[in-house]
Amino acid sequence: MDAFLEFFSFADANVRYVTIGSVLLAASSAVVGCFTYLRKRALVGDAVAHAVLPGVCLAFILSGTKNPFILLIGAFITGWLSLICIDFITSRSRIKEDTAIGLVLSVFFGIGILLLTAIQHSGNAAQSGLDKFLFGKAASLVGEDLIAFSVVAVVLLVSTIVFYKELTLLCFDQAYARTIGFPVRALELLLTTLTVFAVVVGIQAVGVVLMAAMLITPAAAARFWTDRLPVMLVLSALMGAFSGIAGAFVSYTAPAMPTGPWIVLIISMIAILSFALAPSKGWVARIIRQRRNRSQMLEENLLKLLYHLGEQKQAYTAVHTLQELLQRRAMPEKQARAGLHKLRNQGYVKKLPEGWQLTTQGQRRGQRVVRLHRLWELYLTQYLHLASDHVHEDAETIEHIITPELEQKLMEELSFPVLDPHSSRIP
Amino acid sequence: MILQVDNPVVEVHDLTVSYDRKPVLWGIDLTLPAGSLVGVIGPNGAGKSTLVKAMMDLLPTGSGYVRIFGKSINEVRKRISYVPQRESVDWDFPASVFDVVLMGRYGKLGLFSRPRKADKDAAMEALVKVGMESFAKRQISQLSGGQQQRVFLARALAQNADIYFMDEPFAGVDIATETAIIELLRIMREQGKTVIVVHHDLQSAAEYFDWVVLLNMRLVASGPTGVALTQELLEQTYGGKLTVLSKVGDLLRKQDFPSREVKS
Question: Do A211 and A91 touch, CB atoms closer than 8 A?
Answer without folding.
Answer: no
